[in-house]
Amino acid sequence: MPHLSVNRSSKPNCRTVWLISVLVGLLAIHTYANDVLPVPQQVSLSANMDSQQLSISWLAGAATTFDLVILRTELDETVLSETVSVMVSQLSGRHEWNWTSVEPLECTSLSIKIRSREGQTTSEWSNTEILQGSDLPSEENFQIFPLDKVVPVGANTTFCCIMKEGNQFGKIRYGNTDLISTRLSRRSYATTVFNQGLSSSSGSNVICYDNTEQLITGVAVFVGYPPLPGDFVCETRDLTSTVCLWNERRDTNLYKSRGTRYTLNNRPCALEWSRNPQKEYRVANWEGKWTLVAVNALGQYSLTDSAKLSHRVNPVAPEHLTSVVHALNATVLWQLKYDGYYSLALVCQVELTSQGYKTKHTFTGVGLRSAVLPDLYPYEDYSVQVRCGAQQNFWKWGSWSETISFKTSSLVPESPDMWVWMNKDYTGQVMWKPLTRRQSRGLMTGYEVTLWSPEEHLQHTEIVPLDIFAVPINLTQIATVSSDNMVMATVTAKNTEGVSQPASVLIPLRLTDVDPLAVSRAVYTDQGFSLFWQSDANATFAYVVEWCNASCKWNCLVDWINVAPGNTNVSIESANFQPGVRYNISLYSSSSEAPELLQRWQGYMQELVPSSPVMSLLTTQQDSDILLSWEQIPLVSRRGFVLGYNIYMSSGSQFTLLANLSDPGSRSYKVKSMPEGSYKFTVKAYTSAGEDTGATASIMLEPFTDRLILEILASLGVTALFLVIVTFICYKKRQWVKKAFYPDIPEPKLPGDWSRSQAPLDVKPPHHSLVHMVERPEWDSSKEALVVIPEEDEDEDGQGIGEALADTDEPTSLRYYNQVVDERPIRPRYPDSSDSSASSLDSARTDVTYTGIQTSGSFVFQLDSHGSSEGHQPQADPSFCAGGGGGYRPQMQSRVVSDDTGPASPNPYPDPEAASGGGYKPQSSWQMDSPVEDGEGGSRAPSLGSPTSIASTQFLLPDGEEHTEEKRQPSSSAATWLTNLLSSTKP
Amino acid sequence: MADQEQQEHEEQSPALDSPVPGPTETGRAVSIARLLHYECGLLMQLYKEKESFLSSFSPGGGRMVSPSPVSLEEASGEQRVERLHAALRQCLGLLHCVLLKEEEEWGEQEEDYETLKKNVRVRLEHLLLCTRGLLEGPDTALEVTPDHQGTEEPDGARGVFGLKVWTYRVLLELHHWADYAAETLHIFHTERGGTADL
């Protein structure tokens, strides 16, 4: 602030002057500023409707910064308000600024005004310039913009629709999609499509509808890619001009008028439009360097190439091909199109096609115009085409010439490939393989088969038509069967040119039933049956490998191949190989001698499961075992190498694997220790492919009756042996037995003189000596009892009794039968009834014979002493004491003797010695409940006083035990027999 | 067989005495017209599938083909066929124009569409030859070349979209006149003694 001094006294109006000066200064500054920022003048607008770009230019002196405002005129909406820096164009001397509108510039009118700016200082606004839109009232039509625009994929495009005057806006659709629109003016509406995808080849439709959807207008928009050419290269074909080639690496999706345009070295390429991406353009001379520019509405792309002419020679196709043909070769000749080629070193390729197979032969030479094709087949159709390239600096092969065809001449046929199959009776067949077309080497007429016996000079020739390839032979008709003789079989083929060389096989006249070698297994692989064999290092002969179906035995249809000498392996493959068929493969030597079988294989192309199960499956019972046996599957049905058998036992639908027999030779299997019942067995053979359906057999396992019979017989034998041993022992020990069981009864020592009558005293028992059974109603039938046979009956029917007891040694005077069964424990034996003993002691001479003592075996010798003591000791009646526990009592003189004998044995337990002194051991199984009346018991008395032979015939049987007795009868008989035996041994 | 030959002889016999074509020619013309109508329908359907917006679009603008007005009630059969022939020539002119414009715009398009377009053109040319054969006499010489008299572009739509709408109108016009041809020729055929149930 300038220092300003004011003298108040001398100049009293100084402050006022200062203020005025300041204001004037400020005014001057403001006035100067307005003079420096000029208002833009002569604002000019230039619109590019396609690019939607607006160019604005104006005059504004040296100003460089401007404020620009763009408004939609009709609605006064600001489209742009921006401060920009714009320099003066050196060319026009004007400020120029470009602006690209989002909306098409036709959509509505735009107002543009500009002012200069420097810092915060701005000039006045320029006059407003208006870019007229198409929505002016003067243009009443229904319009839509932009028209047929081309945009890249992914672009966003804004469309606007100007409604027809008087119509209301409806909607804008892009394809099948309704878009959201904004209003730009009274009649103009805009919408934007984002991220556009490829359009159809005819363009995507953008359609504007009025509110009735009756009136529409639309445009198409093409969405594609900028050009992307590639593989650009230039070459020469005539050694003068240039041909440039390239391709479109990407379909731009823009066609025809919107398609890509090309320039080569800045000259437009007048290419006929095509959708083919391969492009080719010809230039009259060789420039050595080329630039290709590809342009479309979305962009451009350029490529370059450069080369010497000699490095880019691509010869045109040879012309006018001709041929000179022979049987085994041909010469092909051609012409070259351009004279320059005649001095050019060329490499040419001849492609030979025959029967679909193509081979290429290459030839070189300066100006090459012919080539000789060797190694052709006679009588063969060929076609030939030729192409060439520069031999030096080879660039690429030229185009193929036109194709010419020719046919080579005929020759005599090749020798047939023949073989002989011999049966084992000197018959067989000569076979040969039909000649192929190439082997025929001409038009075939037939075959000739000759059999010749060198020893006997016999020859047989047969002419065979073309369609026959095997002839049966019988060697016995040609030569005598002898081990030294041989027959040579020869086959020749004939065509129109002549006869082939003969093919022959020497056939020995000896039986060929040798199966000389172990048969190996041949494995089939992708290459067929792979065969290997050992070869003698000195062997010079070739081989023949022959194969046929192994199940064939007679005139088999065989196939064969020839193997060159020195080979030790070969793979055989045939279209006739079938799965599941076993093939015999034989290796023969092939020389001037007769073929010799060297090795044999068997194999399957593919093993299958057997087609039929094992044969004759049988089941046999062996005791408790079951033997399964079967026969092997026929060869034709095996369809594979049988690896073994699986044995199943089936119950219903379930199979239980019993065994896996891995031995293919197994023919039987034994199922052991099976209980009785019904069984079903299935035997399945298996190959590497699996097991067959199986053969099934059933069996009903019967009880083993033989064994039971054997067991019974063995038991009986053992029993008999035991009895024999017992008898033998008893016999040997009879003294001891007698002593133990039948001690000698001491003879009574009688005082006085007992004269004896000379005649034996035959004492018959009185009637009263019989035991009388007294019926007791209260008797318990379950208990034992004595059965009494009344003596009266015996008297009356004595004969009958005697018959019933046939084993009695002598007429029975008195017999005892003890049939009492004692259920009580067996007791030791005690002396007999004291009554009887006493009676015996008292008798002068008593000849007592006990016969027919019938008792149970155990009863006689094993009386229970305890039982006697316990059961009978308390009894008061002494007559019963001795027999306590016994089942019977010996018959006594009941009334007469009872009084005497009563006191004779007061002791119920007599001394055993005394008892033994009694002379015998009567059966003493007396039971307490024996039906004995006390009265009668009391009257019993032993018959003493006279020697008495007593025989008792009473049967002592319990009532109601008939049945039991019947059962026991055998044992009683045995006891009787034993007793008699012992008795008979008594000295 | 002999009866059939005799019948054919009887049918042809009036033609020998008169320039009026027999039922065989008219019948063939009817068949071709019907085939043309069928193929035009197919072509139109294919085009609507190609340009889906046409499925809900009914172009206005009236007939594109307008042969010389003849009172149909008073016209003879020959006059109706002659009017038909003129209309078909204009149709052929329009079709040629469509082929040309589409080729200029897009080049070769989808194969089935291009094939069907060419088939319709050939069929239409064949029908023109037939109708000319029906009418031709010693004093008449009808043209069978395209008549571009009716070629026009629709108002209100320019550019590619306008071409599409105009093409659709041409196809509609073809379909209409093919149908008219089949009907007119059938009437003419029956007037010439042909069977109605052809």
Automatic annotation (TrEMBL), chain A:
Keyword Membrane: yes
SUPFAM superfamilies from the UniProt entry: Fibronectin type III (SSF49265)
Chief location bin: membrane
Cellular compartments per GO CC: plasma membrane
The keyword Signal is annotated on this UniProt entry: yes
Short name of one Pfam family: LIFR_D4
Residue spans crossing the bilayer: 708-731
Membrane topology of this protein: Single-pass type I membrane protein
Polar residues bias spans: 862-872, 945-955, 970-987
UniProt domain Fibronectin type-III: residue ranges: 609-709
Region called Disordered, residue ranges: 791-844, 862-987
Biased composition (Low complexity): 833-843
Segments of skewed composition (Basic and acidic residues): 821-832, 960-969
Top-rank taxon, per record: Eukaryota
Cross-referenced CDD domains: FN3
UniProt keywords, alphabetically: Glycoprotein, Membrane, Receptor, Repeat, Signal, Transmembrane, Transmembrane helix
Compartment(s) of residence: Membrane
Family statement: Belongs to the type I cytokine receptor family. Type 2 subfamily.
Name the record gives this protein: Fibronectin type-III domain-containing protein
Organism classification: Eukaryota, Metazoa, Chordata, Craniata, Vertebrata
From TrEMBL, chain B:
UniProt-recorded Gene Ontology molecular function terms: ciliary neurotrophic factor receptor binding
GO BP, one annotated term: ciliary neurotrophic factor-mediated signaling pathway
Residue stretches of biased makeup (Basic and acidic residues): 1-12
Chain spans, region Disordered: 1-26
Signal peptide annotation: none
Protein name: Ciliary neurotrophic factor
The organism of origin for this protein: Eleginops maclovinus
